[in-house]
Write a structure and sequence with these properties.
This protein is mainly alpha-helical. Helices cover 64% and strands 0% of the residues. The chain has helices at residues 3-18, 52-80, 84-110, 116-127, 135-159, 175-197, 204-218, 227-233, 247-268. It is globular and about 55 Å long.
């Protein structure tokens, strides 16, 4: 090697040593392992669960809006046509769209129960070791749902110039109607918790609204499937009303249906043993 080549090599080595090392940001970040959630970026604020007052407000407003849709569309339908089939079609269609929107909007806040049967079923699931609401949340959700349902019925009556509170005279105490409520509520619980068990709750707004729309027609009771809504609808003597004397029977049937629905979830979506 000549003196000139040696000098060139020494200068090249000094240039390599003085070159900046590649920064960690230049290296590709590893992909998350399958089945794991992506982690927030360093310094980012992690998502926080809504506070209990916000959840209570969502349940109250959501249930009020739901009952206002049911009662209001029933009043509108009877004003527009005397055909009972068209009245039910208008009532069920409005309920499908209204319920779907409310679940999509308020689901991220409170879970969009709007229904004591769903809340109690979730509490029971949590009690058995699954995900669900706490006893404190149950104690807040149930009154919020009932107050919201009553407020929604009064609001609908006010919008259409009806007496704000007039007890319904629509008797719904027949046995076949109670059976319809058991079936409607069992199907609703099966749907909600089946979606949860199969990680498909993202479809809840469409699936639940579609089910209720169908149950309007395939159940004899037109699918109340909700104790709070049942109480609220007793406050209006319109198409969607229910006589106060029929309320206890409907609520009892709905609770029986909720138990039956949870039993079906346990049977159909039974968790298998891990492979050895």
């Amino acid at each position: 090697m000549t003196a000139t080549e040696a000098a060139d090599n020494a200068e090249h080595d000094r240039a390599k040593e003085s070159a900046p090392a590649p920064t960690p940001a230049a290296a590709p970040s590893p992909s998350p392992s399958p089945g794991t959630e992506p982690q927030p970026a360093p310094g980012a604020t992690p998502p926080q669960a809504p506070p209990l007052p916000a959840k209570a407000a969502a349940e109250l407003v959501g249930t009020a809006a739901l009952v206002a849709v049911v009662v209001g569309s029933g009043i509108q339908a009877t004003d527009l046509t005397k055909d009972v089939g068209l009245q039910l079609l208008a009532n069920s269609t409005a309920t499908v769209f209204g319920l779907g929107v409310l679940i999509a909007l308020l689901g991220p806040v409170s879970g969009a129960h709007f229904n004591p049967a769903v809340t109690l079923a979730e509490w029971w699931t949590a009690r058995r070791g699954g995900a669900g609401v706490t006893p404190r949340e149950v104690a807040v959700y149930l009154p919020a749902q009932i107050v919201g349902a009553i407020a929604g019925a009064i609001l609908a009556d006010a919008m259409f110039g009806e007496p704000l509170v007039k007890w319904s005279t629509h008797d719904r105490s027949a046995g076949h109607l109670l059976l319809g409520e058991i079936v409607a509520t069992a199907g609703l619980i099966l749907l909600i918790f089946g979606l949860a068990r199969t990680d498909r709750l993202r479809f809840a707004p469409v699936a639940i609204a579609s089910y209720i729309g169908a149950a309007y027609w395939f159940t004899s009771s037109t699918s109340f499937a909700n104790p709070a809504v049942t109480i609220g609808r007793a406050f209006t003597d319109t198409f969607a009303g229910i006589a106060p004397g029929s309320v206890p029977g409907f609520i009892g049937a709905q609770l029986v249906g909720a138990v039956a629905g949870l039993a079906l979830v346990a049977l159909i979506f039974m968790r298998g043993r891990p492979a050895e």
